[in-house]
Specification:
3 domains; two-stranded antiparallel ribbon; 23 helices; binds iron/sulfur cluster
Length: about 525
């Protein structure tokens, strides 16, 4: 019998209990589940800042409830994207070699990537609920498109604890690798359509291998190149996710069907227990817990934007470091559009006899430098502000890569979370030139199927906005992200940092200044880049 533990920090310090046997019968239980009990002592106080208002529960509406309870719900969301992405794969091989006329490359790079960022900032993990990569692999793992089956295909291995404890950092690693490959082959340029095809096929194949080796959505929780980005930036979004309605009912629950699986639903594929969820970080919105809970104690909640950035008490070190790494990567992606970078990269390539951009040394070196500079800035803020007599016992975080009981992480966790909106805005702004310059090509590529589209069509060269207008939009997006970050940082600083700092004004000024600095750097680079794709 495989043991599944809840939460990324499966080696949590918090007491655990093995869930009791499911009274439904052993045939319906494919895995035993280790669960972390909710914060029993003072649970009300502990979760109240993170619990959405009961008034914002969407399944109170009977139509929405019926839709979410329907087992075909997620299948029908995934299906259109599945069709489109297999078209991308096929058209990359058999379609035109002109990237702007190939529907596969056009929809992937001129529209899809930008839409994913809009979805994550507005909703959260909206993309994950309809994602064809995880969806396809899950269909095969479950041997069905939508039904509740009992035996999964594959080895059903559990991810070893020493690896799982790295949490989002694993995903950042795969994202860095994928980004380097994409830049090296100029896939998103977009370059040759068959490269896009190979890349998408590679993601589908990797997902499938992981789904067949490991249980549930281990791939989505730990290894998908997008999961750290969607999870952290998605914390800005308004979907609180599927949450418990009454935590006491979960504490007293004897079956834990939401984690084990019940007659109507699978156990949570993402290892997220609604009974202890306090953010939308790792809820893939699949609705299985809603279907499985025999007590009807799960609802689909919406929340005010930024709630999952500001409110969580149990912040994670792997998430905080991931945010700084993602920030380092997006700064690199801005810097690599400048002439200075071109000179450095050419020089290194000549010295190392490396064929072309991007040289792996400057790629890793610069991302590392930007990340370390951000971590260093946070260290300085902590060093300047922290009270000498500070206790390292509270607040605790659970199941993290590093212990939260250091003076550094007392500042790292809140400040890194506070930077999420400006990081998210920067990723979104970086995608805008392709959308705003080349989206009309998507329509030409559709016409080209029917023999009515080529590179001489005026629409092919039309831009939605001029280059100076694109820069203005990018600056506006960063300014909005910075404003959101300022608001989040203000709230977080007041709640978490003033009590550990020697001077309330100084700590407020320093954390807010860090946001202004980050926003200012991003804006400066966009002005220098001058709308480069
Ligand atoms: S984590 Fe990745 S593979 Fe899984 S659903 Fe989300 S985007 Fe798709
Ligand atoms: S969500 Fe439902 S099944 Fe899960 S612990 Fe709570 S009451 Fe039990
Ligand atoms: S089972 Fe529930 S908590 Fe788990 S990912 Fe799906 S919707 Fe989210």
């Amino acid at each position: 019998m495989t043991i599944v533990e809840e939460g990324v920090g499966q080696g949590t310090a918090r007491a655990r209990e093995e869930a009791p046997a499911n009274p439904i019968g052993p045939d319906l239980i494919t895995q035993a589940v280790r669960l972390r009990a909710p914060y029993r002592k003072g649970a009300q106080d502990h979760f109240s800042p993170t619990d959405p208002s009961p008034g914002l529960e969407l399944t109170k509406n009977s139509h929405i409830a019926r839709l979410v309870r329907n087992r075909k719900f997620q299948f029908l969301l995934i299906l259109p994207n599945q069709i489109i992405f297999w078209m991308v794969i096929v058209l990359g091989v058999v379609g035109t070699v002109v990237p702007g006329l190939n529907f596969g490359t056009a929809i992937t790079w001129y529209l899809w990537f930008c839409l994913v960022f809009v979805m994550m900032t507005v909703v959260g993990r909206a993309w994950c609920v309809m994602c064809p990569f995880g969806g396809f692999a899950e269909w095969i793992q479950r041997k069905t498109f939508w039904q509740r089956t009992q035996k999964a295909l594959g080895l059903g291995k559990k991810l070893p604890q020493p690896i799982a404890r790295y949490g989002f950092l694993l995903s950042v690693g795969t994202f860095l690798l994928l980004t380097w490959i994409e830049e090296f082959f100029n896939i998103a340029g977009p370059g040759a359509p068959h490269d896009t095809s190979l890349m998408v096929l590679g993601i589908v194949a990797s997902a499938l291998i992981f789904f067949l080796l490991f249980e549930r959505r281990t791939f989505c929780r730990y290894f998908c190149p997008l999961t750290a980005l969607i999870g952290s930036v998605g914390a800005m979004g308004s979907a609180a996710g599927f949450r418990t309605k009454d935590r006491q009912v979960c504490i007293d629950c004897k079956t834990k069907d939401c984690m084990r699986g019940g007659e109507e639903g699978y156990g949570c594929p993402w290892y997220t227990w609604p009974g202890s969820a306090d953010s939308n970080l790792s809820c893939g919105l699949c609705s299985e817990c809603y279907k499985a809970c025999p007590s009807g104690n799960v609802g689909l909640f919406i929340q005010k934007p930024l709630t999952s950035v500001i409110a969580p008490v149990r912040r994670r070190v792997d998430v905080a470091i991931s945010i700084t790494l993602l920030w380092g990567l997006v700064l690199y992606q801005q810097f690599n559009a400048t002439n200075v970078y071109g000179t450095i990269d050419d020089w290194l390539n000549t010295k190392m006899h490396f064929p072309q951009y991007p040289n792996p040394v400057d790629y890793i070196g610069l991302i590392g430098l930007f990340t370390l500079a951000t971590l260093g800035l946070i260290w300085v803020i902590g060093r300047v502000n922290i009270r000498k007599d500070i206790s390292l016992q509270e607040p605790k975080t659970y199941g993290t890569l590093l212990s939260a009981k250091t003076k550094y992480t007392k500042y790292l966790l809140p400040i890194a979370y506070g930077l999420i909106p400006v990081v998210g805005a920067d990723y979104f702004a970086r995608q805008l030139p392709k959308l705003l310059k080349h989206l009309p090509r998507l329509f030409v590529s559709i016409g080209a199927w029917f023999g009515h589209g080529n590179t001489h069509y005026s629409l092919y060269s039309d831009h939605l906005l001029s280059v100076p207008q694109i820069v203005n939009v990018q600056v506006a997006v960063i300014a909005l992200g910075a404003l959101a970050s300022l608001w989040a940082m203000w709230k977080i600083t007041n709640r978490e940092l003033i009590s550990v700092s020697r001077n309330a004004l100084l700590v407020r000024v320093s954390t807010l200044a860090s946001v202004v600095l980050c926003g200012g750097i991003a804006i400066g680079l966009y002005i220098i880049m001058h709308g480069a794709s």
